[in-house]
Structure formats: structure tokens, C-alpha cells
Amino acid sequence: MFVRLQESSYICRKVCNMNNPLVSIGIPVYNVEPYIEKCLLSVLNQTYQNLEILVVDDLGTDNSMAKVADLQRAHSRGHQIRVIRHEQNKGLGEARNTTIDAASGKYLYFVDSDDYIEPNTIELLVAEAEQYDTDVVMASSRKVVYNTCEERPTFVYKQKEVLIGQDVFAHYLCKDLRWHIGINAWNNLFKTDFLRKHNLRFAARKDEDALFLSDFYSEVERAVLLPDVTYNYVLRPGSIMGNQARNQIPTAEIRERFKTDAKMTEHCARLRGRSFYDVHCARVMKHKFRAVCVALRHRKRFTEPLSNREICQELKHPASFYEVIHFRRYRQFHLLLYTVSKLPPSLLVCVSYIAGKLMRWI
Length: 362
Description:
This protein is of the alpha/beta class. Helices cover 39% and strands 17% of the residues. It has 13 helices and eleven strands. The protein has helices at residues 36-44, 64-74, 92-102, 121-132, 168-173, 192-197, 208-216, 251-267, 277-297, 308-314, 321-326, 331-341, 345-358, and strands at 2-4, 23-29, 51-57, 81-85, 107-110, 116-117, 136-145, 151-153, 161-164, 188-191, 222-235. Strands 1, 2, 3, 4, 5, 6, 7, 8, 9, 10 and 11 form an eleven-stranded mixed beta sheet that branches. Helix 1 (36-44) packs parallel to helix 2 (64-74) and helix 8 (251-267) packs antiparallel against helix 9 (277-297). The protein starts with a strand and ends with a helix.
């Protein structure tokens, strides 16, 4: 069943708080002192009140956790904050995994600690989740420039979509190689049991959202997409997304991304035989070629050399040649990248650089 509803907004239903399911909100914290108070206040001041707020202390070096402690003491709902302290710094992905393991709520919602959400975010998403018994409800977001508060559009769904049935959500995403949902873990209300049942986890550090999305969408049987803007993504100096502005980039970071992409490649095997396998593999290869272009674009800025062999390994194709020639969709794209992946490393790098330049990805 594929239901398309022409709605641009949704009026939240008011229900008695005691009948509302518990929602766990996971907030990883690492060196976000200027932002954490606004983030936490946006969660504490939600119109929906049956919450547990899981703050994961990933052992930063600033006063972020002191601000968390202040809100625990001073805010009327500060008792909803539960701090979980890592024994060592593990990164954003593992911090999210910690909240998956610790969550007591029927639903789990991720918020990055430098961002903030709208006052009715959880009320809106829970109402949809309860109405349609969803695995996930995904809403729209905006970008906000730190200090100036200038708003910039990011990913907004044009209309409400209710996607119910085996592979309906997957086929919605696999219409073509574009992403038809936001490539982020935040601003999605997941059923906690759904995440645990399918053992959905985040990679440790780099590109964790892309791997998580690649893993979870094929398992979804009930989803709702909303045009309502419920999340504010803060553009700030020094954020993970802004690291490419640095004069030097640690080579370990691109290697971590390649490592995550290798997991994405490996995980393709579980989708063999599914009707969208050809598009899934094409999307993975497009994602990996973009990573190669990033590596080539910034290669001279890495703190130590990145070898041609490492770049070659990044372009390993997830499918066999037999599978590629029998793909119904994007067969030529697959054949091109499969052929490139078999070239000697130095020639592969040369061809990839030229192709990246032509595509304006380098």
C-alpha cells in the first residue's frame, strides 16, 4: 500500500500525558560548550513531556558537561536528563550506539548537541508514529548560521507521504540515484525495537549517517515523511561538516571514511535478490566515487601520504561481474565503475581524477 497525502502541515492532536509513550532523546556531547544549553533547552521545553533525555558524555575538554549539570539542577524538568559517561572518547557514532543500548522509550530520537529542535517536534512526530504504527517518522529541517541566525533551506519534504508495506519505502528511495530523504540520523523518530531487532548500529566516526541510512532503509515497512520543519541544523565553525576548510586534514579521517565505506560495500550482500539491489549498489558506488573525489581534491593537504592502492580499494564494486551484466537499471554505470575498479592503481587514480574534474566533483 502506498498512500500519498496532499498535506503541507499537520495539527498535533492533544492527548493526556499519561497515555503518551515514553520517548528517549539521545544527545552525544563532545566540546559543544557554546551550543549545548540551547540544544538542551529546546528538548526540555518540548510540548510533549513524557521524555527521557540521554546525554552521552564523550569526554570533551571544555565545560559542556558543567552546563548539562546546571540544567539538571535548575530546570523544572531537569530530572529527565540522564548522563551516560564513556570511559574513553569514542566518537559520534558510538555515542549514538550507547543511546540505542540505554534507551527505555518506545521511540528514540537523535539530536546533535550543537543543534536545536522546534517546541512541538516530539509531539508532532509521536502523533504520526502512533497513528500509523511506524518504524520511523522523518520530518524536514532547516540550516541556521551560528551568530547571525540566518536561515538557509536544507532538506524539506514537499508533502506528507505515508509509505506502508514491504519494500515500499525502499522503492521510494530507489526510484533513481538521488536521495529522496535526508541523509542524517537526526530528526527521525525511530521505534526503538525496530533498531534493536535489525541490529542497526552506527560506525565509529566518519560517514556514520550514510552507512546507517544505507543499512536501515531496506528494513522499513512503515514510514511517514513530513514537510513540517522540526529541526534546526546549526552551521558553525569547527563542526564535522566544516572540517574541509582546514589547511591540513589528518589522513586518518579519510581512511576512517574509507573504512566505513568498506562496511557499506560489505553490507550490500545482504540485499542480493531484493528488487532494488541494482539501484542500491549503484547508489553505494556513487557515494564511494564521491569519496574518492574528496580524497583526490584534498590529497595535497593530508598530513601524510594517501596511497593509490588505498584509493583503488575504495572503488571496489559490491557486485560480481555476473550480477552487473544482469542488472536491469544503471547497467552502463555499473559496468563503467566495475571496469575502472579493476585498473592498476595508478591508472585508476588518473581516470578517476579526470572523471571527477569533468563532473566538477574535484
